[in-house]
Amino acid sequence: MSTATTLMLIALLIPVAGAALVVITGRWQNLRETMTLLTAGSLFLLVIQLPGNVETTVLAELAPAFTLAFHVEPLGYVFAVLASFLWIITSIYSIGYMRAHHEQNQTRFYAWFAIAIAAVMGVAFSANLLTLFVFYEILTLSTWPLVTHSQTEEARRSGRIYLGILVGTSMVFLLLATGSIWHLTGTLDFQSGGVFNKNIPAAILAIVYTLFIFGVGKAALMPFHRWLPAAMVAPTPVSALLHAVAVVKAGVFTILKGTVYLFGLDTLSESGASVYLLPVAAVTIVLASLIALRKDNLKARLAYSTISQLSYVVLGALLANVHGIIAGTMHMVMHGFAKITLFFCAGAILVASHQTEISHMRGLGKKMPITMGAFLIGALAIIGLPPLGAMWSKWYLILGTLDRGYWSIIAVLVISTLLNIAYLLPIPIRGFMNGPERGNDTLEEAPFACLLAICITVIGCIVLFFQAPALVAFLNEGLNL
């Protein structure tokens, strides 16, 4: 077994070991949080040492020709680096938030968070669709206790919606797609160029691809999106986990990986099998943004913003060309940093001012300039203005769309950007410009740990703008697109 393979397998185990350490040290708050940070830091340091490609290792054979197998390829490497780094930052933020908000069952929270990251590593390093499916389901089940963390009736109801949609879509559509791929090709292994040959009728391929896309409920395509706003009942660090670190990113990553390594870009492009789904992504982008405009609750507005932004990644995959895949992968990263910044700011506002409604945040920036300033930068990153990373992902998405000649999709992207401005920028403007209405002179910024995490992700939004060419070069070389 090579050193790279050993490191990959250790990366799968580190979060599980971290969860055990959290439970063991749960009685001692400082020690428990130290274990969380050490585990998250260790995982990131290990992941960045992995090469962009690691040979396939079979861990177990569930049945003849059905294996749990792992490898590292460029898309999985990027996803693993993103998730492991943001786990560190989310852990730092969680310490400040959970203490300041006096959350109950904190040991359970940190333990399940670690298990969820273990599932993310399993998804990232899956060498076949069966392995990915197993860890995809583990991720759903391990995040359900986080969604229902408060144990209120509202949380339980939201948890039922969460499980119902995510398990339902995967067990019906994704499982059926998996069986169809096996029946048609005789393999579930991820392979360069895909596993389908050109003898498969275009109509059959389109049906299987549609089942696959809708089976990935974590990508939150309409009409299978309601689980995401329902899950906003969870604590803000969980919202960050759902929107930036793990769940939704596992969804769009699955779509990207399946598109490249199962269906194949050339096969999809020549057959036109993905074209029929473009209107679904386009409608999700615009309609979710329009709904966001109507939401006064800050987390609800950000939730619908996420639904819209995820479909940028899905759209990149559906274009089935080089620019589309690069755009989707880049947006997975860029949106991760920008959206986690916005949710961190929402949590900081809640901890410091106990405000959740945007209409009640007038003048808040006077008391919380760091938080509201960071929100402004995160909002501009989502919009896609330089020097912020999401500018590049949107640029490559436009290039991919132009390659296909889909001018109506260009119009959707322009409209979406204008809607981004309309539902995000009024929030910091209201905070800074609408005059002080706060007589509470004791109001101040959120705890230091929260501000530290916010500042790191803001810096990340800027750094990614300058590192985008390196990411593009890595993807072009590693994926051989």
Provide the descriptors you would attach to this structure in a database record.
481 residues; single chain; two-stranded antiparallel ribbon; globular; 20 helices; mainly alpha
3D architecture notes:
The chain is mainly alpha-helical and 481 residues long. 74% of the residues lie in helices and 4% in strands. The protein contains 20 helices and two strands. The protein has helices spanning 3-24, 29-47, 74-100, 106-124, 129-147, 153-185, 202-215, 227-230, 236-245, 247-263, 265-271, 278-294, 298-319, 322-353, 364-367, 369-383, 390-404, 407-424, 426-433, 448-479; strands spanning 54-63, 66-72. The chain has a two-stranded antiparallel ribbon. Helix 3 (74-100) runs antiparallel to helix 4. The longest helix has 33 residues, at 153-185. The protein starts with a helix and ends with a helix. The model has no long low-confidence stretch (mean pLDDT 89).
